[in-house]
Amino acid sequence: MAGRYFGAPVVRREDPRLLTGHGRYVDDITLPGMAHAVFVRSPYAHAHIQRIDCAAAKAVAGVFDVLTLADFGERYAGKRMAETYSAPHLRQEIRQYPLAKDEVCYVGEPVALVVAESRAIAEDAAALVAIDYAPLPAIIDCAAALDKDAPRAHATAADNIIAQLHNAYGDIDKAFRDAPHHFSVDVRQHRGGCHAMECRGVIAKDEPYGDGLTVWSSTQSPYLVRRVLTRHLEEDDSRLRVIAPDVGGGFGPKASVYAEEIVIALAARTLAMPVKWIEDRREHFTATNQQGDQVWHLDVAARDDGKMLGLRGHIIADNGAYMPYGLRLPFSTLIPLPGPYDLTALDVRMDVVFTNTTAKSPVRGAGRPNTAFAIERAIEAIARGLDLDPAAVRATNFVTADQFPYQSGNKAPTGALITYDSGDFHGCLEKALALADYAGFKDRQAAARQAGRYLGIGVSSCVEDTGRGPFEGATIRVNPSGRVLLQTGAAGQGQGHATVFAQIAADELGIDIDQIEYRSADTGQFPHGIATVGSRVAVNAGSAVFKAAREVRDKALQLAANLLQADQADLELVEGTVRVKGSSEARLTLAELATQLSPIVGGELPMGLAPGLEATAYTDPQPSTTASGTNVAEVEVDIGTGAVKLIKYSVAHDCGRLINPLLVNGQIEGGVVHGIGNALFERMHYNDDGQPLSTNYGEYLLPLATEMPPIEIVHQETPSPLHPLGVKGAGEAGTIPAAAAVVTAIENALSPWGITIDSYPVS
After folding, report:
1. How many CB atoms lie within 10 A of CB 570?
2. In what order do the strands lie in the sheet with 644-654?
3. Contact residues for 436 (Cβ-Cβ < 8 A; gap 6+)
4. How far is CA 143 from CA 161, 167, 294, 323, in A?
5. Quick check: 538 and 464 in contact, CB under 8 A?
6. Beta strands in 492-624 (DSSP E)
7. In terms of CB atoms within 10 Å, which end of the chain has fewer, N or C?
């Protein structure tokens, strides 16, 4: 596909509205008679609830009610939240109650809801809700959770194991027997939370004799929220509308369905008034899903030249107190194995465990950064052990360009073989090394050491399964005014959907991009959608936009051929006008054609065509596309203080064809910063009792602009053969390899002391 807009650095069309304060986020919405809600949350990581006394809180002037689970009636009092993603591998499935029933299992679990005239009144009253807790032992460390004598995260559970997963292929025993070299890697990885600029928020309004229940939520997954709400409320989905307005960042945790969405909906229905809840930042630290610890042990078998012959190991993955995303996060850790490397034998087991910490779900990269870090640690162990150049070891192990489509041997949860559709891993490596001046680094390093400074360089490569189905959809409608309405179900949180989808449609329809109006993420306006997660929307929704625009184009040409009495093959669509090639007279605008398909009473539809110059299309079923890349980090380490300064960061990335290089660069830069935060700053600390110790930005550190290096990006465009656009995902590309690149660079700076690093963030 080529055109005027596709591939051009079009400035984001969303920005003028947002930058001038005309965005509409959940907290900007005010409804007549709206009440404000505050949750009363558990101060204990694990405890029995013995008594809840709401009398003092209810007596506060301006309080409408204080609600516990029992107050929603027998229909809901014993009902846990619906399962979102089922998996046959689950050993025990313990889902959360919307409000805690008898037991709390993490600090921040919602127990009661205060609804009042204002947020301030609700907060004051919440402090008066008296709850008697009987504390129970808590388990915080995911490795210790496997001990048979460990405290149970749930009092009635047999143990703390959620699932035991196993991915294997090839003859692993033979690989280790035949290999002249064996190396081991032990790593502990920590991932923090979402930390979007906008915290979560929910508004619910119920009109039992009107439109039914409407919920506004700062979610990445409005259709999943609708599905869970309809199941929990036992409501027909035609009576339930979920809208994701402007959302100030998502990064994965906003893709889950939360207890708060159910409770606010129930409160609006119970009290017969609109109810708003806006999460404060402390709640965000304790109640919004995080991505937790993983403990890895890997053994790798290698030849003299560094070629890996086999990889085996064990992973312990912390899933927190509940499983709001099923096993999607653990599987997202296993599926990318063995990364971009051609490996004939793999055997990796994973224990997924409960702990008394905030529930875990994907954060940007969704398990893939953990996998990339562990695999890249194995590559570094081989290079160090055999005294080989780390970049050369990667090149020796890469899948080669002539092997695509490449089946890794690993399997998806469905049993399907994982297939890399396309790529050029060697090309990305060469581009990244050139961008970083890798060849000249040893001279720079030697000169710096002469001056008492310690520079280091680190390389990290990765693959990412992107564009995962099953579908997204799009409607394109040319109105008689000539304006074009473009609708999708894909919720946006800053990715630039209104720009890139308009670029695709504008090229197909031969119109100016400013003629397109974009609407999305409203289950009442577009019937079907999935979610904006997993770097999947450009592939899925983009393909649907292309397909719908092509159908509208074909319909316009068919109608114009009839009206102009011309052969359709002799027509072209240029600047919003269908014309006979080479003729300045025989022409019809899209507005005129749309008018023909919207006749008045007594009129006729030409040629028996369906009304409206419009089409709705959905993505054709297809496998995931494979994005890939190599990052190179250059750092300086102060050996007196341990401070790490990032000098330069180089990225070579392949996300197929670029719809908009300006936006892709922004996504990659943001992802790199997120990954640097993982490597050096972000850690959610808990004490042994499960009390969170980092609940503000004085304790939980994020990278600042002053700490960021220059980030240089070069693209390699290997089109995906799986769909007509040839694009792959890019939203998580910067994050996945970043921690490995930074940590490896720190090790390289400290190589005179033979230091290796087995965990991050690096203090």
Report:
1. 14
2. 454-466, 625-637, 644-654, 711-715
3. 457, 632, 634, 648, 650
4. 11, 20, 9, 18
5. no
6. 516-520, 571-574, 577-580, 587-589, 613-618
7. C
Nearby residues of 705 by Cβ (< 8 Å), 6 or more positions away: none
Strand partners, 653: 629, 715
Number of H helices, E strands in the chain: 18, 29
List the beta bridge partners of residue 715. Answer: 653
Can you tell me which residue has the tokens 């780390």?
390
- Side-chain half-sphere exposure of 147, counting CA atoms within 13 A: 9
Report the predicted TM-score, pTM, of the whole model to 2 decimal places. 0.96
- Which residues contact residue 207 at a Cβ distance below 8 angstroms, ignoring those fewer than 6 apart? 213, 214
Contact assessment for residue 432 and residue 651, using Cβ atoms and an 8 Å cutoff? yes
Give me the DSSP letters along 414-446. TSPEEEE----HHHHHHHHHHHTTGGGHHHHHH
How far, in Å, CA of 215 to CA of 240, rounded?
8
The residue whose two tokens read 């921040």 is 108
Distance CA 259, CA 529 (A): 21
Distances (CA, A) of 284 to 109, 149, 194, 749: 12, 32, 8, 36
User: What is the torsional sign of CA 395, 401, 402, 406?
Assistant: positive
Q: What is the pLDDT of residues 326-362, one digit of tens each?
A: 899 999 999 999 999 999 999 999 999 999 999 999 9
Phi, psi of 295 (to 5 degrees): -115, 125
Q: Report the C-alpha gap between 286 and 43 in whole angstroms.
A: 10
**Residues 491, 244 contacting (CB under 8 angstroms):** yes
Assign 108 to helix, strand or coil. coil
